[in-house]
Amino acid sequence: MASKKNVYFFGKGKAEGDAKMKSILGGKGANLAEMTNLGIPVPPGFTISTDVCAVYYENKNKYPKEIKDEVEAGLKRLEAVMKKKLGDPSDPLLVSVRSGAAISMPGMMDTILNLGISDKSVKGLATKTGNPRFAWDAYRRFIQMYGDVVMGVEHSKFEDALHALKKSKNIEMDTDLKASDLEKLVEEYKQIVKKNTGKDFPQAPLDQLWGAINAVFGSWMSERAITYRKLEDIRNLKGTAVNVQSMVFGNFGDDSGTGVCFSRDPSTGINEFYGEYLMNAQGEDVVAGIRTPERISTLAKKNPTIYKQLVGIKNRLEKHFKDMQDMEFTVQQGELFLLQTRNGKRAGTAAVKCAVDMVAEKLIDKTTAIMRVSPNHLDQLLHPMIDSSAQKGAKALTKGLNASPGAGTGRIVFNAKDAELWHERGEKVLLVRKDTSPEDIGGMVVSQGILTSTGGMTSHAAVVARGMGTPCVAGAKGVLVQGNTVEIGGKRFNEGDWITIDGTSGEVYEGKLPLVAPSISKDVNTFLKWCDDVRAGSVRGRIKGFAVRTNADQPDDAKRAFAFGAQGIGLCRTEHMFFDKEKLIHFRAMIIADTEDERKEQLKKILPLQQKDFYGIFKAMEGRPVTIRLLDPPLHEFVPHTEEEIGELAGHLNISPEKLHSKIGTLLESNPMLGHRGCRLAVTYPEIYDMQVEAIALAAVECVKEKIPVHPEIMIPIVVTARELRLLRPNAEKILEKVFTAAGVKIPVTIGTMIEVPRAAIRSAHIAKYADFFSFGTNDLTQMTFAFSRDDIASFLPTYLEKNVLDVDPFKTIDQDGVGGLMELAIKEGRSVKPDLKMGICGEHGGDPATIDFCYRVGLSYVSCSPFRVPLARLAGAQAVINNPGKNITGGGSGKTKPATAKVKGSKKTVKGDKKMAVTSAKKKPAAKKKTAKKTGAKKTGAKKTAKKKTAAKKTGAKKTGAKKKTGAKKTGAKKKTAAKKKPAAKKSVVL
Ligand code: ADP
Ligand code: MG
Ligand code: MG
Question: I need a surface site. Which of 38, 269, 635, 665 has the fewest CB within 10 A?
Fold first, then answer.
């Protein structure tokens, strides 16, 4: 440590540090140094490095002698430059002591100004400056700040004394206080300190200095600093630096002042000098709100010289840092000083506007522009928000999980039915529940927001709300629903009372707060197109491009997502369609049915309705791929629960409620998420999937006849073994064949599976033989890999995070090591069988930026997320491409250089070629399967198929040879053949 430099000087046009040294000088110190080197007027000073902060903690809040000496040597140097001594009774040097970590942490510690002033030096200062009012004002400010920040005396105690004095004098403005008033106030302040701490206010300059330095280092571990770092996910910082800087005085008189300014408007991004200042004021007066600051534009008239100089500096700084600057300045008797500059924090709108404008101005390139905007920025733009001035004035009642972004305000209702009833009456409602379930959909749709007391980020409420773009706060422990009242943060509310939720922050407010509408500007579109270009241009081995799809269940969702730039649908959950009233009654009847015939009867009635939904979705997507997942949830989720509903259904079915009751009883499962669901339903009741496939095929035919291009992909959920697909795939193919033949059309349809059970991930090489694509269902995969029920994690996950057992909620951001490890395995294994196997992710994670980065790295072709997250994913995907240059993907021999080159040509065709491939695979499969069918003795597949198969085989064969020639990769072809040949034999003994 001794040999290491700990103190860095800046002043008089030269600094020992620079802007690149943020990690040791902190952001503030590094930029003070940089500005000094640029010749911008900055009061001289020195920065004590962040390393010293670490030493301070290691040494039980003390410093080794050499550090103490180094700091005091820094002070000597400063005194020499300033030609004054700290606290000198006749002409004191005064300094500020300022904190500053590598990443700015607003409010970590209050700055101490005017340090060095004492009972003696205040008089010297008064005489020397000829301005006693200023001297006493500086002293009282110093006691107030030092007393609060270093000695722990409540700020309000000083404020009260100040108020009382002003009142007794009958004045409003601090600036109207005279020197003698302030002198009295100083006396009073000192007594306040004595009374509250038992200590005299320190008079020795060095005591004052070390007290302040200790306080800055001490603030690093203060509760608010720790909380802030946690909330903002700031890690791996060494500590804070301390800046000791000679004072300049904005409170010297009417020719002095202080201000804050931005090189562009931080809320709109408009390239317009923006800021505020106060004359005759110091430091925090501008933000403290006691006097109303003036807009920076008025300075142009009041002091054109300073204004011009300031504009010159802001232009220089922006050019130099190539980003919007947030600056602090002070004017002392007509002389301008810069006290800080940093890249300005900005609202979402401003982030995009600045990025787009700066590219146009050739200040930055597109890549930099893309990296400048955060996914959160974009997220902000797509949802209504609470008007920021209203939010500032309001206090949150409680805070839950920020489950679905945006703000909503409405009157409290406690169940879905009431939500619908109130909505029909034209009321705005906010649904407040312990949790929600699929039957609440109707009420959720009409609600302005959803608030639940239990459930995590992927609870039903959260998932559905995000899908609908409805704000949602979930798992809010401070919410206690009791019948028709609710306690929120200890306060009781009744049905009909107004509340407002902020799903972006998780906060819940009393009353009706004003909201501001989202806007998607031309700039946002321009910006997102750049992102699309970056993703489209990416190459990872054999994979070209990185697409963003959406999860959409209804034509409306699809349309919205398409408008947001979705390149396809990655997950269309068919069960959501059944909750539609018209379908639900038939679906329930189907579930209750005793025989296959009865079931088929009911399914027949659902078919045209579901066909209509598919038609709408295909149409909305204009030929982009649409992955439709066949029925997934356990059947009992659809059965009626209330007596009223049971009575209604019994009447409809013409059976007794008792019989219905007992029938429902048989459907109950003690662990339905691991129960009779997904493809298991189709293994037992093939007619359900048959109906769905038929509806898909018919909808596709309808579209094609209307010249609407279609690209359906059928996805089979909860597969655990290849044998399930071996059994189910031919069923689907048979129906597709039948419908298409009858209609006289040929429509390519691929059939793939979800990888969402650990076993499936492990056995994916086998599963791949029967699948045209994989889609990672990471909600279930996370649930089953962790054995965490996603609806029940609220009771322990917070503790897990708090105690660092987990870093993040694994349902929010993919667990890269565990769940991600399984994904990597599945990708590698799957592509070892089919090198071009298309793979994507459709779990809730698909809209999470960190997960998107992971998906890019491991070689997925696309991510799919809810419609409102699509723009965010378009950006996050582009950032992933930029962050991972030259990424080669895992598995499938895809990293091989030669095939990769050939690939570039081949993959150009992907979009068109996809369809072709689909035809091939649709035909190819029966071939493989047929053999299976024979073995299993299933006679269904008749002679017809054999004939077909031969044709198919020929075609496939021809294709393969072609492909082989192109890529020159013999292995691939050979491998495929072997696999195909080997399989039937192996099947007998090998468990798939
Ligand atoms: P924060 O990190 O909270 O912005 P700063 O360290 O920037 O705190 O200090 C806040 C304000 O105090 C500055 O904007 C400036 O107005 C004032 N200030 C800090 N140091 C000095 C100084 N040496 N001379 C004059 N004013 C100062
Ligand atoms: Mg500052
Ligand atoms: Mg699933």
Answer: 665
